[in-house]
Each structure stands twice: as structure tokens, then as C-alpha cells.
Amino acid sequence: MMTDNPGGNVTTIVIQLEPGWVYVKVAEPKPPPERIEFFLKRTIEDWFSDHPGFAIDRAEQVFRGDELLGMHVWYREKGNAPSAETRTRKSSRRTKTFAFEIHEKLAKPWTREYIEAVVDDALKILPTFEQRNDTHIIVNRRQVGVIIDPTASRGAVVPLEYVLEIVHGPTRERLDHWLAEPDSSFYIMHMFGSWFSRQNPQLPAEIAQLIDRYGSGPRTLRDAIADMTPRQIDAAPIAGKWSTRQVICHLADFETIMANRMKHVIAEDQPSFPGGFHEQFARRLAYDARDIDEEIRLIEVVRSQTARILRTLPPEAFARTGIHSIDGPMTLKDLLERITNHIPHHAAFIQEKRRAME
Q1: What's the pTM value of the predicted model, to 2 decimals?
Q2: pLDDT by residue (tens digit) across 217-248?
Q3: CA dihedral (12, 17, 22, 24) positive or negative
């Protein structure tokens, strides 16, 4: 976690090497040597405050010459819960950590030293994106993925296959191209929202992947309009069809509508909702005057919030129904599929407009 101190930003990390054993270190750029032990000990205190069921057995400092590199900490289970005083004291601290989990599939083929080096390399990239709250996904040439989730203050080192499960559309195409011919040490992606909040072991893979596709929709839209000029955004090169600006306003309006429909289906028994008013919206809601970036940011926020809700639901919730005034009964899954496909559907029309202007 990034923390303010007189020497600048400091990132401390905890790597779970095995059950009962963690390695704690300070990543580059490091504070002055005389401050390293302070940050290591504070990180260890915070980690054990976050894991009140564990107690330290022993700790061992790791040196290279006179330089303190990190600390190995071995621990055991205990039954004591944290006191209110401990929780209050912890909340007042400014130093937290990225606690990294190492996937079991990587524990055997790679040494601990290699995993530590991979995490170190990934964290060197982090300051470039420290203003972003989304999840950073870094893939190296050996197809090891490092997940850095600032929202959860957690990280993970996972096989490439786990990254590929959540990457779709143009982002997946670009990753596949890089994997075929890597032209850099890393490939960096960003996932809207938290990697760890998306994990609900109860959800069937089909539903989990659908939610992931829903969450990645705004990136598909941004890719579709990349490098378009304001004149191109407002052009209507195909007779009888909307401009790109009008398409994006339509998408933004129906994001809020569909999110509310899904919420009503989750919270109420067979709610009803009207349909068939997109033309009235286009005529009366200033589609020619609205800001493109504002519209897309609205879509991003709505999808992030709604996806967070959807990932908490039990599988049976996706069979709950509402009554559409035109289409009749629709399940929560039906609504999610419809809005998930909405952006790709219109992104194809945007590409059609772009080709017409060439």
C-alpha cells in the first residue's frame, strides 16, 4: 500500500510463501536504510492485526551485506479475536500492505526467489498508475500474471489461464497478439473494479463470466471511439442512422434504466417495467449537446456498482423475474445478458460509421 512519509511513497508487500510462512519486504523505491526496519515491523503488525487468528512463532531478518532486504515470519493459529482497542489502533495507522497470495499451480514450477522477483518487477510499475483505483493486471513473458488490487489492498500471483478467463473482446485480442510476439517485458491491463470482490465461489462459471463481460463493456466502447475527432463523433454518414454522440447518449441512458430494472428484480417480487421509449429519449434529452467522456464515465460507474451487487448474489437470484411491458417475463439473467450485449451491438454500428467516413 502507498503511504506518505518524509522520504516519499513506500510500498510494502507480504508474500504468502507457504501456510504458516510469509515474507515481508519493502519494494523499490526504498526509504532510507535506517527506516526499512521500521516499515517492515509496522507491516508485520498490520498484517497480524488483519489476521487475528494467527500468532508469530519466530521471525528472521534477511540481509545482503549490511542491507536489510526483508523478514521471514513463521506463524501458527490461535483462537483469540481482536479487541476493540486493537481495531481502533489499527484504523489510525497510515501504513498498510499488499498481501500477495501465490496460486498453488505456481508453487512447484517456480522458486520462491523467482516469485518474489516477479512481484518486485510488477510493483515497480505501480507508481505510474497510483491515481487509478481499478485492478492492475501484469503478465510477463513466462505467462505469469500479477494482480494488484488497490481497492482490497491485496495482490495475487496466478497462472495466465486465470487472467484469460476474465479478459474479453479487443483487450483479449491485444493480449493474444502480445503473447504471440512479446515486444516488452510485461503486458499491462486494467480491470474496472476489484479483482477480489468479483470472486463468489457459489456463482456458476457462466454467470461469473457474464458479469465479467458486463464489467468490461465500457472498455469496448472506449476502444470503438478511439482517435475519433469531434467532427467524426457528430457526423451521421449513414442516412437515417444516429451519430456516434447520439449512440453513446443512448447507451448511457439505458445503462441506468437497465441497472434499475435489475435492482428491482433482485429486491422485489415480479416488478413490472415499461419499454419502447428510446426514440422519445433521443428527441428530448439533448443527445446533441452532451459530453462524451461524461457519458462513458457514467456507464463505468453504473456497471462497477451493479457488478459489485451481482457478484454477491446466490445462483438462484439470477432466475428471479420481472415483467417487461413488451417482452413479457424476463429473468435477472435475461436482463444482464441484454445490457451486456448492448455495447457490442452498438460498437459494431460505430465501426460501420467509421468505415463510411474513410
Answers
A1: 0.54
A2: 888 899 899 889 999 999 999 999 999 999 99
A3: negative
